[in-house]
Amino acid sequence: MTSELIGYDELDDAVARLQLGVQASDLHGSLCGFLAGGGRVGRQSLIETLHLDAELATPSAPDQAVLDRLVRQSGAELDDPELGFEPLLPADDRPLQERAEALVDWCRGFLGGFGLAGAEAHAKLSDEAQEILRDLGTIAASSFDFGDEGEDEDALIEVHEFVRMGAMLLFAECAGRNKPDSDTVH
């Protein structure tokens, strides 16, 4: 990829300027869920594709460039054979509660985006994929009680890893099924 990867803070700044009414983690989760569900961002803007309400009618060129890069980056990361996908979340130096809430927002967004991609592929999901969706729903509905900082940090890392791997599995199962076979001649 020729352009620098988009980080959480850069996306968060663009979301604020666009006045999307969602958090950056929610937007990234929605996009990843949409892509994992087999959706494709075509000629419509990402904002239109995900049915987001933007206060600004037309994003500035730099903000549109961030959104376009985000679409390319997310698709490439989800499809990475090296399993390099990462949900865009606040950095590890941010407070634990902020990171945990962002992960919940990401999961809510993912489920919404996955639903937007359409029910056709979802009817054919494996038992494992259906279980991952149920677990993501549980995470999305969670609220946290914080106690021991070390234990809480470990638990968040574990949930983060589950979410990361679950998103890639769902992408492989749904979006991978929709990829044309380039070797096939009809």
What features would you describe in this structure?
The chain has a single domain (8-176), classed as Four Helix Bundle (Hemerythrin (Met), subunit A), CATH 1.20.120.740. It is built from 8 helices and no strands. The protein has helices at 8-18, 24-36, 46-49, 61-78, 96-116, 119-122, 127-140, 149-174. The radius of gyration is 17 Å and the shape is globular.
Comma- or semicolon-separated keywords:
186 residues; mainly alpha; Four Helix Bundle (Hemerythrin (Met), subunit A); 8 helices
* Total separate domains: 1
Low-confidence stretches are: 180-186
- Please identify the structural class as seen in this structure: mainly alpha
Order of helices and strands: HHHHHHHH
Protein name: YecA family protein
Family: Belongs to the UPF0149 family.
What does the secondary structure layout of this molecule look like, with pairings?
Blueprint: H1 8-18, H2 24-36, H3 46-49, H4 61-78, H5 96-116, H6 119-122, H7 127-140, H8 149-174
Question: Concise description?
Answer:
This is YecA family protein. The protein is mainly alpha-helical and 186 residues long. 60% of the residues lie in helices and 0% in strands.
